[in-house]
Automatic annotation (TrEMBL), chain A:
Protein name: ABC transporter permease
Transmembrane segments: 12-35, 55-80, 92-114, 120-139, 172-195, 215-237
Positions of the ABC transmembrane type-1 domain: 54-238
Subcellular location, principal: membrane
Membrane topology of this protein: Multi-pass membrane protein
Family statement drawn from the similarity comment of this UniProt entry: Belongs to the binding-protein-dependent transport system permease family.
Protein location: Cell membrane
Pfam family, one: BPD_transp_1
Keywords (A to Z) from UniProt: Cell membrane, Membrane, Transmembrane, Transmembrane helix, Transport
SUPFAM superfamilies xrefs: MetI-like
InterPro entries membership: MetI-like, MetI-like_sf
Length: 250, 260
C-alpha cells in the first residue's frame, strides 16, 4: 500500500509541476486566452454542463465498447471453429479496419441520425478489430499438451472450450480491452463531430466556432479523463480476473 | 514391497499393453519403424533413446492420441485405465492445486461425482505430500511441486498404468533425484492402484536406478534396439548407484548408445 502511494507520487508531482509552469508561463508572457488559456481559466469554465456532456460521451463509448467486445468474441469463437469462415471473413474484417472511421462517420449519421446510435456504432466499429484478432489468437494459444490431457480423459469439445480455450484466451482478451478502451472514446467523439447536439465532441466543435478556447480545453481534458477512467477500470478488472498473469508477462 | 509380492503370485506375467508392428509417419517423415513391445503388469519400464527419436510418440500410441500406420496394432488389457504425466506440469494456471487434480475426474465420462472427485483429489495430494498446498495456485509453487501436482492428477483417477514423458527432465538435479524415489515409493505403495509405470527418459542413470527393464530405442525412424533387464534388487533405494550391478548396466547401455 505504501509503495503504491509512493509510486503514484511521481506522476502526480510531475503533473502538478507542469500545471504550475503552464499557469506561470501564460501570466508572465501575457499569452492571449484564445491561443492558450491558463489552467485556472480552464478550471473556471468546468461546470455541470461539462459533466453532463462527458456522461453522454462516456455512455456512447461504453455501449459501443461492450457491444463490440461481445460481437468480436462471438465472431472469434466462430472463426476458431470453422477454418473456411475464418478464411472468407477475415479479409473483410481487415478491410473494415483499414477504412478510416472518419470517412465512415458521416454515412453512419445519414443512416442513423444524430442521436446515440450513430456514435455507439462508430465506437463499435473502431473497437471490433482488436478484440477479434486477440480473441482468435488467445483461443488458439492452448498448449498442445493441455489439449492432449483433455483428450486423454475424453474431454468433449464443449469441455475443451469452456475449461481450456476460454480461460487460456483471457489474457489476450484483456490486452485487447485495454487497447480498445481508449479507441472507444475516439469513436464516440468522431461520431459527435459529424452530427450531434450533445457530447464532448459537440462541445469541442462548437467552442472552436466561437474561438472559446477555455471551453475547448475543458472538453479535451474531459475526453482524456473518459479514456483514463475506462482504461483504469479495465486494468482493475484484469488484475482480478487474470490474476495468474503477472503484469510483466504482458 | 507389497506390490511385488502380490505380483509374483498373481499377475506378474500378464500383459498390460502390447504394441505390434507399429510404424508411424508424420506426413513423409517416418518416426517409428516397426515397433513391437509388450508391457507387463507390475513392472517399471523405461524407454531410453536419443532426443527426438520418437519415444514420446510411443506413449501417444498407447494413449490412442495417435494411431499407428496400417498393419500396426496397439492392444490394451481389458478396462485398463491409463494416467499420463508430461514433461511440463501442464497445470491450468487459473485453477488451484486441488482444482487441477479434480479437473480430469470431472470431464469426459465423468466417472465421479463432485464429492468423490474432491475426496480422490485430496487423497492424491496427500500421496505426493502437498496436502498443505491444496488451495495454492500453480504460480505460487516451485517447479518440483508443480510436477508433483501433475503426478497427483494422474494418480487421482486410480490408473493401473502410468505413462510418463520425461517427467523430471525440466527439473534441477536435486529435485529430480528426490522425485525419482518418491515415484518409486508411490509405485510400490499399496495405497495406489498403480501397477505399471512406463517412463520415457534420456537419462541412462535415471533409467537404471528406476526400472526393471529398459527399452533402448534406435534413432529415427525409431525401432526397439534392445530390451535390457536391470539386475538390481526389486526394492530400489538411495545408494544403489554404488552397486557393481548398477555400473555394469550403465556401462552396457553406454556402449549401446555409442553403437547407435
Amino acid at each position: 500500500m505504501m509503495n503504491k502511494i509512493k509510486s503514484s507520487m511521481y506522476p502526480i508531482s510531475f503533473a502538478l509541476g507542469f500545471i504550475v509552469l503552464w499557469e506561470l508561463a501564460v501570466r508572465l508572457f501575457h499569452v492571449p486566452v484564445y491561443l492558450l488559456p491558463a489552467p485556472s481559466a480552464v478550471i473556471e469554465v468546468m461546470d455541470g454542463s461539462l459533466s453532463s456532456h462527458m456522461l453522454v460521451t462516456l455512455t456512447e463509448a461504453l455501449a459501443g465498447f461492450v457491444l463490440a467486445n461481445i460481437l468480436g468474441m462471438i465472431t472469434a469463437v466462430i472463426f476458431v471453429h470453422s477454418k473456411s469462415i475464418e478464411k472468407g471473413a477475415f479479409p473483410l474484417a481487415i478491410a473494415l479496419k483499414t477504412t478510416p472511421l472518419v470517412a465512415l462517420a458521416p454515412l453512419l449519421v445519414v443512416w442513423m441520425g444524430t442521436g446515440y446510435s450513430s456514435k455507439v456504432v462508430a465506437s463499435m466499429l473502431i473497437c471490433f478489430f482488436p478484440i477479434l484478432v486477440n480473441s482468435v489468437k488467445g483461443l488458439k494459444a492452448i498448449e498442445h499438451e493441455a489439449w492432449e490431457l483433455f483428450s486423454t480423459y475424453k474431454g468433449t469439445k464443449a469441455e475443451i472450450f469452456w475449461k481450456l480455450r476460454l480461460p487460456t484466451s483471457l489474457p489476450y482478451v484483456f490486452s485487447a480491452l485495454k487497447i480498445s478502451s481508449s479507441l472507444a472514446i475516439v469513436g464516440a467523439i468522431v461520431g459527435e463531430f459529424v452530427g450531434a447536439n450533445k457530447g464532448l465532441g459537440y462541445v469541442v466543435l462548437v467552442s472552436s466556432y466561437h474561438m472559446d478556447t477555455p471551453i475547448m480545453f475543458s472538453a479535451i481534458i474531459a475526453s482524456a479523463l473518459c479514456g483514463l477512467l475506462l482504461f483504469w477500470g479495465i486494468s482493475w478488472l484484469e488484475k482480478k480476473v487474470v490474476f495468474w498473469q503477472r503484469a510483466d508477462d504482458l | 514391497m507389497a506390490k511385488q509380492e502380490q505380483a509374483s503370485v498373481s499377475s506378474m506375467n500378464e500383459i498390460a499393453v502390447t504394441l505390434k508392428n507399429c510404424s508411424l509417419s508424420f506426413g513423409d517423415v517416418p518416426v517409428l519403424n516397426n515397433v513391437s513391445l509388450d508391457i507387463y503388469n507390475n513392472e517399471f519400464v523405461s524407454i531410453l533413446g536419443p532426443s527426438g527419436c520418437g519415444k514420446s510418440t510411443l506413449l501417444r500410441l498407447m494413449l490412442s492420441l495417435l494411431q499407428p500406420n496400417a498393419g500396426g496394432e496397439v492392444k490394451l488389457a481389458k478396462d485398463l485405465s491409463i494416467g499420463m504425466v508430461f514433461q511440463k506440469p501442464v497445470l491450468m494456471p487459473w485453477l488451484t492445486a486441488i482444482q487441477n487434480i479434480v479437473l480430469p475426474l470431472t470431464i469426459g465420462e465423468k466417472r465421479f461425482s463432485k464429492k468423490e472427485a474432491r475426496d480422490k483429489a485430496e487423497g492424491a495430494l496427500r500421496l505426493v505430500g502437498l496436502q498443505d498446498f491444496t488451495n495454492h495456485f500453480p504460480h505460487q509453487l516451485s517447479g518440483g511441486m508443480q510436477q508433483r501436482i501433475a503426478i497427483a492428477r494422474a494418480l487421482a483417477a486410480d490408473p493401473a498404468v502410468l505413462l510418463m514423458d520425461e517427467p523430471f527432465g525440466a527439473l534441477d538435479e536435486f529435485t529430480r533425484e528426490k522425485l525419482n524415489f518418491e515415484l518409486l515409493r508411490l509405485w510400490e505403495s499399496p495405497d495406489t492402484s498403480l501397477s505399471t509405470v512406463v517412463m520415457v527418459t534420456h537419462s541412462i542413470q535415471e533409467s537404471v536406478i528406476m526400472s526393471n527393464r529398459i527399452v533402448m530405442m534406435s534413432p529415427r525412424p525409431a525401432g526397439v534396439d534392445a530390451i535390457i533387464p536391470v539386475p538390481l534388487p526389486a526394492h530400489r533405494e538411495v545408494g544403489m548407484e554404488e552397486l557393481p550391478e548398477y555400473h555394469h548396466t550403465v556401462n552396457e547401455l553406454r556402449k549401446r548408445v555409442k553403437h547407435l
